[in-house]
Amino acid sequence: MGKVLYRVPTTDRGGTLLTPIRWFWLAAALAMAVDLASKSLIFQLLGGSPSEDGLVRNAVVWLLPGAFRLILHYNTGGAFGWAAGNVLLFLGATAVLVPVLVMTAYHCREPGSPLWCLGLIVGGAIGNLYDRLFHAGVRDFLEVVNPGNGQGLWPVFNVADVAIVVGVGVYLAWSVADSSRRRQGA
Fold first, then answer.
1. Alpha-carbon distances, residue 69 vs 49, 55, 101, 181 (angstroms)
2. Is 131 a catalytic residue?
3. What 3-state DSSP class applies to 70?
4. Active-site option among 12, 35, 131, 161
5. For residues 98 and 160, what is the distance between their CA atoms, to the nearest angstrom?
6. Strand partners of residue 142
7. DSSP 3-state assignment of 150?
């Protein structure tokens, strides 16, 4: 058997199998895997390629009639179609965002910090980055519809978008609550 040169004591890592940084990586891997698998499955099942407006015609499946459906859409922009066609902007933003979030997770010393939230953001960003690099745009397929008029309540989205929104929302809520606790305790 080989000699162990250095062993990190379990107390330095919290003494558990799933430390906060491991939760970060697990959340990132799961968000990315579920996002890419769901896009691949839905686009394969419904088939089609985008038209000029990004929608794929005749590729709609109602999951909750009149309220929620699968509809294939390629988004070449950001949220709400912002900066459509500006691929370099989104590639650059992702190239900056992902390393910053990874470094933040590794350097975070806040007890109880939900690093898994940062992992969700990283996983979602990488899932959408993959689409920008290898498809006509980000593959979106979930749409919430207003039952009254049949129009989408907001743009079509995907699992990566959900992961990013949940990650940002929970992390911001934790940050506000943590800041409030610190002010009260000081």
1. 18, 14, 33, 42
2. no
3. strand
4. 161
5. 14
6. 70, 157
7. coil
The string of DSSP codes covering 40-58 is: HHHHHHH-----TTSEEEE
Cα 108 to its chain centre, rounded Å, is 20
pLDDT tens track for 35-49: 999 999 998 888 866
**Residue-wise pLDDT tens digits, 143-181:** 999 988 878 888 899 999 999 999 999 999 999 998 888
Phi first, then psi, for residue 138 (nearest 5°) are -70, 130
Output the six-digit token pair for 91.
């590639």
Residue 51 to residue 47: CA distance in whole angstroms: 13
51 half-sphere exposure, CB direction, 13 A CA radius: 7
Output the pTM of the full model.
Answer: 0.82
Whether the CB-CB separation of 39 and 33 falls below 8 Å is answered with no
Active site residue 178: no
DSSP 94-147: HHHHHHHHHHHHHH---TT--HHHHHHHHHHHHHHHHHHHHSSSEEEEEEEB-T
